[in-house]
Structures are given as structure tokens and as C-alpha cells.
Fold this sequence. Notes:
By secondary structure, the protein is mainly beta. The protein has three domains: 151 residues, Sandwich (Immunoglobulin-like), CATH 2.60.40.1210; 149 residues, Sandwich (Jelly Rolls); 197 residues, Jelly Rolls (Sandwich), CATH 2.60.120.230. Helix content is 12%, strand content 36%. Helix 1 packs antiparallel against helix 2. It is globular and about 75 Å long.
Amino acid sequence: MTAxxxxxxxxxxxxxxxxxxxxxxxxxxxxxxxxxxxxxxHRSASKCRINEVTWLFTLCLLVLLPLNAFANRLSxxxxxEIYLDNKEIKLSWMVDWYKQExxxxxxxxxxxxxRWFYLGFSKRGDIGDADICFFENQNGFFNVVxxxxxxxxxxxxxxxxxxxxxLFKMDEYTLAFKRKxxxxxPSDFRMHEGxxxxxxxxxxxxxxxxxxxxxxxxVSQHESGIQMMQLLRSDKILIPETDLKVVEIRLHNVTIxxxxxxxxxxxxxxxxxxVHKHHIVQFEPIIITPGLVHHMEVFHCETDxxxxxxxxxxDCEQMPSAAKVCSKVVALWAMGxxxxxxxxxxxxxxxxxxxxxxxxxxxxxxxxxxxxxLVDSSGMRIKLVSQLRQFDAGVMELGLEYxxxxxxxxxxxGFPLSGYCIAECTEVALPRTGIVIFGSQLHTHLTGVRVLTxxxxxxxxxxxxxxxxxxxxxxxxxxxxxxxPRVLPGDALVTTCYYNTVGKDNCxxxxxxxxxxxxxxxxxxxxxxKLEVCKSSVxxxxxxxxxxxxxxxxxxxxxxxxxxxxKNYESIKWTQPRVDQLYTMxxxxxxxxxCNKSDNTRFxxxxxxxxxxxxxxxxxxxHRKLCPNYNPLWLKPLDxxxxxxxxxxxx
Length: 651
């Protein structure tokens, strides 16, 4: 046997052992704690069948993946998994970036009663215009797969003229298949690196899959579901160190106020071992009241090592002024996110002789039903190593300043607002060799439906930092980036958020409340710099001139020239021409630029108020491969939906 063949055999054995070892692992539960093993209650014979299919799935992977994919040890870094029903139906998948396809494996998809199972992809979780692979038992054998799509109203299933669900194997419990990222089929969804909505269901009654059209099957909520996930994701990161130390920063039996929005602050002193510098290599949330904790941030108190910060545990609005220095971001979490692990070359510094030992936890409670008597002890669990890694990491906020200077008119499908990190800021704040971005978390409140950060070097637009065309505020993952951009001094970063305000009667303002809006990209990068915030809003002078124009030219008499911005925006009667005027003002007029250090002071060397806006192409690049003879039947593409202000029809 050749050396390469021997290596493949070894990797094959390792991969199959890995799959078997994962059979009893449980996906993160609602409290986002460590995985809990849960034995599946099946006969030993069914387990054997599952293992046989797993081995076959592995063999298919060995055949399909290029040899260089196995040059390094094939570990669980390449295997992603989730329980679709949170208990039994386990979806595992691997991404073949070389062949641009995903290989799927489903455990316990069927039992003795089920006649069919489907796995599909939906634009934003709707059953209408969905792309579905049906797997069916015929004559006692699970041997038929049919590529289908649903009608716009979700009532009917149509057989696709191009069959792109490629089956490896099915038995009475398990199935394995593959799909291309982009099949060049208008009746399939193109897989992307943003949030995808994965549909599943199974049933006992026969389906008429041989027919061109049949009614969409109606099954109970216990036998169907939708999961939001990032299918095309980077490999998982393993922590090479074994000697880990753990710090928990959390609330202690806090009674959640009975109001819609509360920012709760808790200040505590760090453990004594942090008199020596450590690197944070992982952090994970501890969520006690899911659904009420919207997001959390941990901040370090950036001051001299010997300054005592008063301990505090109450509403952030009453926090003592001495704690205002506690503003350097250390860790963060938002709904939908879970554990975040640093790449092996870097870690976030914590501790040291000159490091102030106080830390602040800020928890955003969202309690729209004004529920009383709820007690919470949520927080963050941070893992550290004493052996320092090559680079100190940092966290930076990109996007829009939290201010009511920005507004979103009502009735908009996808109104865009952009926050700028202008070239003049990176020029004065970044090192000569630049920074490498390896992690990103996009964040809005309730009306955000799409977020991306674009990267510019002079007149050239480079590859995007992060992009989620199907963003959901319910699923705000901190994502390790597969492509890690290097941002140089003089580069510009533009973060754009799109908002859906259809059904609203008045404008939505920027701000801290859950009913206000935000537009943020929290980026993790190395090496660390003093730049903490690189965000913008429209300049004060521009906004004053805008309200003068609305009052005198547009005859909006409710506008008060010295009045509150929020009241002025809310007094405007919004027509499409006025929406267009607002958008034009935001993308053309000068900025109020926040090029800030962690102590909230601006960098010196530039006039940041009324700073020039970064000129960018308004049209967002759409990434698709060239498909010869695309859509010969002139079908409406599944991913085509309602159109936004700029004519992009993805909603």
C-alpha cells in the first residue's frame, strides 16, 4: 500500500470513530450550557444499521473529497452537527469548499412508522417558495429522492425539472446525500455563508412524488420544524492548551424589572491569579432566562491598576460615575449565539501587574410583557491560558452610533442605513502592517433583516468582511471567519443594515431600547490596538439643515427647529419622495465620526465632526457563479422576493 493510501485508511478509521463517538452527544439546550450526552432509545440492531450508513457516508466522503483535504488529521473540526428536533434527529454535515458542495448525514430520520422525510431550505422560514429534498420509502425500501419546490403560498409541492439532491444511501433509520452550493437551478436556493433556514418534516402517509404537483403535507409540529443555522461555516477551532483556567462573570439572583427594556450592570473584582497576564481563548454564555436576555457584554475598567471601582449591581442608568471607565469590550453575546473560540495564534489579554482588576457585566433584558418576579443569574464563562499566544487580540465596534440622529421611515421593505469607519480613522489608529479580522458578530434590534460590512482600499472594493443577506435578530452568532481580511491604515469599512418597517405607522429611531434600532458589527482581530469604536452618524449641522428644509420647503409644520430630533422625525408625514430625500441625505452628507479609544476619547490628528463620507457604490455586489443556459423555462427564481429602495429583490 502506498503512503498516501495508508494515510487515507488511517483517516477513514479516525473519521468513522469520530462519527460513532458523536452519536450520543446532545446539541446545546436552551440554557446554552455544555453538551449533555443523551442515549438514544433504539434497539442495538438499529444502532448497527446507523453505523453501517455512517461508514458508507464516510466512504463517500473519501471518494468525493480531494486528497489534499486529508493531508492533515481529519478531526471533528470539519464535522458540524445539530439536533433538528433538539433530542433525536441529528443532522451532520461537512462543507467541501473545493467542489463547492455540502455532504449531509441524518441519523434517526425515520422509524418503523415513517414513510417519508424531507430536508429543505427556505428564504426566511416560510414554507412558500421553499427548496425541498423528499426521501421516500417505496416497496419497503427507502430508495427514492425527489428534488422539489413549493408554490408561493406554500400549499403545493412541485417536482423540479432539474434534480439536484444526490443520494448516497438510505435505510429505515438513516440517510446521506449531497447538494451543490449553487446548482444553477432557479428552483433551488443558492447556499451562502449567511443565515440559512433549514426545514424538516417526516410523515406516515404515502406521498404522490411521481406526480408533477401534490399538496404540501400537513404534519404535527412534533414531526416538523425550522432551524436557523450557518451551513457554509468555517472549521471548528480546537483549543491546543490543556491547562485552562475559568472565570465566571455573572449576575446573582437579580429580579428582572417589569419594564420593556433594562440594561443591568454588575461590577465585580477578578480572581487573584490574574495579577499575571493571561490570554482569553474561549467564552460562552450562561443563560438562565432564555427569551428575556437579549444580549450581554463584558467590559474591562480601563484605569490605573490601583484604582478601586465601587462594586455595583443595579440598573446601568444609576451606575456611579467612577464606573464609566469600565467600557473596554472583553466578551459579548446576543440571541442565537453560543460559544466563541479564538484561533490558536491569538487570545484576548486579561490580567497583569498594571491591569485594573475590576470588570463590568452589562445585560440587556427585553421584557415586553412586563412580567414580574423573574429572577436571573445569567453571565459569561471565560476560559484563559497562562502561556501567552503570539498575538494579543482586540474587539472593535463598527457601524452606527447609538443615536436618534438616524431614523428609518415606516412602510419600508429594506431601508438601508450605513455606518462608516473612514480611511482617516484607520490611518491614525492602525499599525503599519494593519490588523487581521478573524471573528464577527452582526447586531440589530427587531426590524433588521440584512447586514454586511464592506472593505475599501482607495477606489477599490475588496472582499466583504461579513455578510448576512437573510439576517435574523433571533440568531446573532459570533462567527469565526473563513476569509480573514487584513485591514491596512487608510482602508475604509462600511457597515450597512437594512430594516423592514412594513406595518409601522411612524419612523423607527436609533437608540438603546429594543423598539429603537442599532447597526453594529463587533469584530475580533489581532494585533490589538487602542481603537475601540469606529462608528458614525450624520453630522449635527447636516441634520439641522435637513429639518429646516423639511419645515420650509416640504411644509412639515410639526418640525421644531430647536426641538428634539426624535419629535421632529416623528412629526414628518412620510411619502416616497421624502423617504428618498432622507436616504440621499444619509449617503451624501458629512459625518459625525466616532474614532474612539476605550476611554471614549477620540484619536487626535483629525477634525472628526463634519468628516467627509466614504464614497461607495450603492449597489451591493451579488455573488453568483456564471451558469450557461440558466433558467431555460423562464421560471421565477425562488430567491427572488420583494424589492428594497435600491431595487434589490431578496426580501
